Amino acid sequence: MKRAILAAVLLSPAVLFAQGEKPFTIHGTVAQVQKQAKVYLKVKKGDDAMLDSAEVKDGKFIFKGTIKEPSMASLMMVITDPQPDFPRGMKQDILPLFLDKGDITITAQDSVKNAVVKGSAANDAYLQLDGMLKDIGTQKRDLQKAYRQLYMAKDEEGMKRLEPKFDELEAQEKKITRDYLAKYPASPIAMFALNQYAGYEINPTDVEPVFKKLDKKIRNSESGKAFATRLEAAKKTAIGQPALDFSQTDATGNAISLASFKGKYVLVDFWASWCGPCRAENPNVVRAYSKYKAKGFEILGVSLDDKKEKWLAAIQADNLAWTHVSDLKGWKNAAAELYSIRAIPQNLLIDPQGRIVAKNLRGEALETKLSEVMQPQ
């Protein structure tokens, strides 16, 4: 489940990005909107986001602020006094864009999602890459639609037949992005593109050479340094590396360390009660645990919950009869940060010697891996 944290504090445009360094101004025009409407600007700030708003007056709006580097953002227009002759869907009208320093103009007729953006070199680069990926994006959406239909029909064989196509499209998408970064190593959206290429689970062998070929200025940017930190964490937690020890408390307050499981195969399972994909995966984990626990297989569940009662209720509801810990800090969970967990569910299989032997085993993959190293009861 992809991470989306919004620090949604409505501030005036003059103070929203007061801690930034480079000023920007957005001059927006939505010519055919003459009644009450409001535009929201959401700007990505590291792992978080900031939100600002502006009223549309006589078809115009303005935002002012500062940013440290080109930043991914989105505009959403909401009609607060609906007009009967407006197109349907007008009430949620979203435009993704890249902010850059200086003056930016956004011009539209009745919909910001169809606006023309000028004055942002970063946005020009974003549109260039987006255009290169457009055909694959269309194919992925069509494939996802077909997959959902098979899921609703409970056609597991049909879903399995589509999985190789997802892998094929992902490989094509990664090649295009990698080629873009090789051609434009100083692109203002280089770190955005690299994060998309790397995904939530970084493969250091694949990703590090791409990162090192980026322009030095890009690598030394704020987002470049943040990525370097993630890359180092990924190298330390790659398959074959010794697992990093941590200790957290269980539901009764007892401290449980990962090191205490040494001598057994243990699955460190990062999850949360609010994570739909985690809860959907739990039956597979329960089945594997029931099959292999008598042979010394253990699970250490690490919850990214921040509400104890919801965490414990999910454990009971899903019949998760293994060891559970949490510091109840949500995405700031210390163990999750140690392993650079940015999306859940994620897991690591650790052997009796304390080395990571597999990562992100889901569905049948978990039992398949366990069958390689253990014999079922």
From TrEMBL:
The GO terms this record gives for MF are: antioxidant activity; oxidoreductase activity
Ranges for domain Thioredoxin? 237-377
This protein's major location comes to other
Keyword terms, alphabetized = Cytochrome c-type biogenesis, Disulfide bond, Redox-active center, Signal
- Which N-terminal stretch is annotated as signal sequence? 1-18
- Localisation per UniProt entry: Cell envelope
Which Gene Ontology cellular component terms are annotated?
cell envelope
Query: Which InterPro entries does the entry mention?
Result: AhpC/TSA, DUF4369, Thioredoxin-like_sf, Thioredoxin_CS, Thioredoxin_domain, Thioredoxin_ResA/DsbE_sf
Coiled coil start-end: none
The protein's name:
AhpC/TSA family protein
Q: Which organism is it from?
A: Chitinophaga agrisoli
